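Duplicate of earlier report; DUF3164 domain-containing protein input re-posted below.
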Amino acid sequence: MSLVELLNKPIAELSSAELEQVMAHKRAEERKALDTAREAYQQDKEAYIGQLLDAFKEQAETLKKIKGIAINEGLALNNRIYEINGKTPKEDQKTFTIKNEDDTARVVIDRQERFEFTEEAQVHITAIKDLFKEKFEQRNKGFYALLDSILMRNSKGDYDAKLLTKARLQVRKIGDEALISEFDKLQDCMRVVGTSTYIRVYERDENKKWRDISLNFSSI
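Output:
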């Protein structure tokens, strides 16, 4: 009896061997359907990732070009207003703002130095953490945990130069000579490795407050 005939035969009339043959066919069909579904999923997944990757790369390149043009033109405008007033821009000028005439939009261009620490920094970081632990852990565990977190590396494996600089200023107010000494030594371990230029655009909202027009994907 052919398979087609078996499939059309009432199940109650099937022998054990015929039933096994029908079940084997059903299992094969299920496996084929599952394989087809997996293959379709795999194709769709690869297409999704590939298309999204290309789109993100294209937009990232576009934004990079926009940033470069915007910064260069902003710097040129900043130089022009100095020239109009018979002045020369300061070479160390790090931040400037350009606003429209009705004060509803502004552009802020900000240059920031990038820092890194020498290997010796770890010695002073460890000494500072030990001093903090000795002085504050028993008195206020929450405060100690906050101080300790300031001296930890960030997700990129770097120390946060800004936080350490702020902490150094606060330590001077405390007046602890041992801490001051270690923070001064840590400060000497910082090296300027370059600068980064940032540009931010703001507009006033319905409450006349400045609102950042963010290009961060997570904020859209």
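The radius of gyration is 33 Å.

Merging into the original ticket.
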